[in-house]
């Protein structure tokens, strides 16, 4: 099955050995520096709130002393190779929404939890269900260390929850968000692989099987009124930086979605 068909049917696809080791090294070098800064600034929250991710790695605060590295990072994550691959798979114009880095929680007590990404937004579940077929929000996962790190329910991107899934996602009727769900698939990735999955598929992380995790997720998608309003312009290249970006497709569209950039 090709990548388009696999995504259509299952809500995810893996591009094995997509990145060269040198690309992963360069991304890792920048991500490590950002992650170190973030950990210093969020040490207490990391422990007290049992955080499992950080976001907005392109925020200018992470590049105050190395501004050129921000342009390098924008170029590395939006490589011509990746933008072309997504064009071929999805045949729609994508915009760059944000970035996230997933890691293991500080404490082993924290359990992974099944969710659809927008369930933590103010958008009503019924509205999400009704708009599901009009939306395409993606995670493009670039694992920087090997992981069995994400588990998902194939096909749940095309339909809404079964009764059990709903009970588990919302912890209703004595169910818990970390219960096993039928039909789940645990994804195993090596550095160099790329995993593309729907942000609205039912999914959860896996911490226990991984001694350490470091997965960079690019959040991309087709513009849709429900999600566009969450786009934060601070994470986008500015006018000057745009001049040095080789493949501007995703960033051009993001900037068009921000009223001041029109
Ligand atoms: O990798 C993980 O820990 C969880 C991934 C996840 O929840 C997400 O990408 O929204």
From TrEMBL:
Gene Ontology molecular function, alphabetical: 2-oxoglutarate-dependent dioxygenase activity; iron ion binding
Domain of life: Bacteria
InterPro entries: Phytyl_CoA_dOase-like (IPR008775)
One Pfam family of this chain: PhyH
Keywords recorded for this protein, A-Z: Dioxygenase, Oxidoreductase
Name of the molecule in the record: Phytanoyl-CoA dioxygenase family protein
Organism the protein comes from: Leptothoe spongobia TAU-MAC 1115
Classification lineage: Bacteria, Bacillati, Cyanobacteriota, Cyanophyceae, Nodosilineales
């Amino acid at each position: 099955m090709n990548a388009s068909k696999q995504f259509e049917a299952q809500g995810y696809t893996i591009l094995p050995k997509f990145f060269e080791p040198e690309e992963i090294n360069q991304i890792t070098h920048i991500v490590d520096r950002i992650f170190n800064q973030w950990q210093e600034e969020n040490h207490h929250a990391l422990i007290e709130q049992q955080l499992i991710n950080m976001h907005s790695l392109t925020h200018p605060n992470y590049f105050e002393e190395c501004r050129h590295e921000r342009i390098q990072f924008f170029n590395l994550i939006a490589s011509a190779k990746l933008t072309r691959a997504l064009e071929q798979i999805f045949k729609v114009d994508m915009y760059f929404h944000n970035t996230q880095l997933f890691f293991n929680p500080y404490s082993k007590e924290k359990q992974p939890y099944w969710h659809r990404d927008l369930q933590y937004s103010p958008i009503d579940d019924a509205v999400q269900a009704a708009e599901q077929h009009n939306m395409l929000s993606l995670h493009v996962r670039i694992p920087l260390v090997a992981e069995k790190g994400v588990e998902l329910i194939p096909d749940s991107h095309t339909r809404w929850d079964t009764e059990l899934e709903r009970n588990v996602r919302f912890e209703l009727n004595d169910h818990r968000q970390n219960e096993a769900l039928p039909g789940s698939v645990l994804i195993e990735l090596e550095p160099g692989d790329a995993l593309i999955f729907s942000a609205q598929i039912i999914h959860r992380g896996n911490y226990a099987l991984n001694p350490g995790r470091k997965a960079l997720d690019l959040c991309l998608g087709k513009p849709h009124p429900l999600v566009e309003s969450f786009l934060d312009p601070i994470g986008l290249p500015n006018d000057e930086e745009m001049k040095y970006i080789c493949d501007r497709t995703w960033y051009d569209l993001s900037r068009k979605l921000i009223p001041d950039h029109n």
